[in-house]
Amino acid sequence: MKFFLPLTVLLLALASFVRAADDPAEGVKAATKVREIFEAKCLDCHGPELPRPKGKFGYVLDLKRVADNPDYIERGKPDKSDLFKMVEDDEMPGEDANVPPLTRDEKDIVKRWIELGAPDAPQVAGETTSAAPKTAEAKQLMPFWKRLLRYIGRMHPVSTHFPVALMFVAVFAEGIAWWTRRDSWLQTVRFLVVLAALGAISAAALGWINAYFASYVGQAAPILKWHRWLGTGTAIWAVVCAALAMIHECREGTTERQRLRGALLLGAFLVGVSGFLGSALIYGLDHYAWN
């Protein structure tokens, strides 16, 4: 009996040692499977060969780099890892991807990989990708109307230039009206603001369609959220500006004209911030950094 306790401790220590010895092998196996999953399900949007991979996340097969990025992975804690959360909630792959979401087994493999500390997978010499045939086969899963809608949504970046330019030119025209004190400039301002409002509504609608098919991870995910809602608010405010310009007479020196000018200045500011966030989705928040 006196040897029971030491023997128990010894057996537990031996079991822990055996388990620790197995962990590296399990980690390599899990990492290899995860890289195969990412190769099949993620290259469509985050492939290294893409000129502009979504979310600036074009290194999905570099597991070490992915695991070292705290925006994506918190080692040992899948529930706190944004990448796993998006995979678990079927947010990635996104609706615009030509592949189906991860299966339950694939999600469990990714989860186990993170629990093991997100180890790297060894590269195999002469390895070829099998993602291409899977992607081609998966294209048939998306119906024609959805592919058409996705294509229409891609017009969003082009559509934003129209209201952006018109809103800023409207502010410039109103500045000339203030400087010259001529009411004749109001007709120009009205024309510009009404067109800007119509263009803003169109751009916002296309933006929502485009965002539905988008998949962004890490820091890009909240940027997309702010850009989408701020852009919608900007479109609504552009309509307010158009209403102020059209409904009231807005003669020079009146309160209505001051309200219009204030609304135009705020509208131009909102347009600028929305545009900055939109470009940040492609180039990052530091794309205006002086370096």
TrEMBL record:
DUF2231 domain location: 155-283
What protein name is recorded for this chain?
DUF2231 domain-containing protein
Q: Which organism is it from?
A: Chthoniobacter flavus Ellin428
Q: Where does the sequence pass through the membrane?
A: 160-179, 191-209, 229-250, 262-285
Which molecular-function annotations from GO does this UniProt entry contain? Answer: electron transfer activity; heme binding
Concerning InterPro entries, the annotation shows: Cyt_c-like_dom_sf, DUF2231_TM, MFS_trans_sf
What are the entry keywords? Membrane, Signal, Transmembrane, Transmembrane helix
Query: Where in the sequence is the signal peptide annotated?
Result: 1-20
> Is the Ribonucleoprotein keyword given for this protein?
no
